[in-house]
Amino acid sequence: MTNYRPICDVWLLARTRTGYYGAYPYGFLQRARDLIGCGLKDRVLHVCSGAIKKYPFSGYGSNDRTVDINGELDPDYVMDVSKELPKGNWEGVLVDTPYSEEEAKNYGDFPYPEPNKLLRDIERIIEPGIKVGVLHYFPPRPPKTMRLVALVAVMTGYKNRVRVFSVFEKKEREK
Hints:
Blueprint: E1 7-12, H1 28-35, E2 44-47, E3 65-68, E4 77-78, E5 92-95, H2 101-104, H3 115-125, E6 131-136, E7 146-155, E8 163-170
Parallel strand pairs: 1-7, 2-3, 2-5, 3-4, 5-6
Antiparallel strand pairs: 6-8, 7-8
């Protein structure tokens, strides 16, 4: 067995000032795509996507698809991700759930998708070698069929909460 150490880093990014609560910081989306190994033409599923289609910066690809419970945000799939996920031949997945049940109230009266369960559910719909990036206050615990490949602190200035971007990869099936 080879020694394996995940990538660890800190990104100091600017707020986007999009007016959408919880929007990705400036420059985050392109960096996140790079870290999950997806170019702009790859098929990336954005889970709890919010207003990502209106994100004013680079990083949203032509083959990306969005899933959100709030149909007013015009996602490609309107569904409760704590119960189901869209099937597809995804080449990467980016997850940006509300960061707590309390934070979820900022988005309306919707159920809170628990990150550990959500990561296990995503693992079931992706193929080995596919990476999943999760932006949250706490890194979720991956199932045994996944490994942590990167952990990045995401800051938008001092005296602000630090978010953690965790990247996991589905392991190849054991023979």
